[in-house]
Write a structure and sequence with these properties.
Blueprint lengths: L1 H9 L4 H6 L3 H7 L24 H25 L4 H33 L23
Helix pairs in contact: 4-5
């Protein structure tokens, strides 16, 4: 969405306006099209997706990503405070990150609670055997 906002703000800009805004290098490579990259010009890469194969580690990464996104939206809001047509969608996006953070936190607590539950095991030499005492009703 941020890329779309930037596109809408620059699509009718003159070359002079683009240069004055410091966007000439971006314009040279991408015109006014949406190209996902950081504010420093580093293109998006799948390396930003931190997956470890461990549910707790993954949820912690998700929580951190939501907080980083929220902080970025707050900085963008600070930069655009005089532009309500830009700030309103950014506030929506920031609030969405807050809600995502809360949901990931709830998921993390649920996983931690599940992992902390006491485990009960039954021992039976042959669970498939119908004669096994584990499969018989107690009379």
């Amino acid at each position: 969405m941020v890329g779309s906002i930037v596109h809408q703000l620059t699509k009718n800009a003159s070359i002079e306006e683009i240069e004055k805004a410091g966007l000439s290098a971006y314009y040279t490579d991408h015109g006014v099209d949406v190209y996902p990259q950081s504010a420093a010009g580093v293109p998006f890469t799948a390396a930003y997706l931190a997956c470890k194969g461990d549910v707790i580690a993954n949820l912690q990464e998700d929580l951190a990503a939501e907080q980083k996104a929220r902080a970025t939206y707050e900085k963008l809001i600070d930069l655009c405070r005089d532009e309500p047509d830009v700030v309103d969608p950014l506030r929506y996006l920031r609030q969405r990150e807050i809600v995502h953070f809360q949901r990931f936190g709830e998921a993390l607590r649920g996983v931690q609670d599940k992992l902390a539950e006491k485990k009960f095991y039954m021992n039976c030499d042959n669970m498939q055997n119908s004669d096994c005492s584990c499969n018989k009703d107690n009379d």
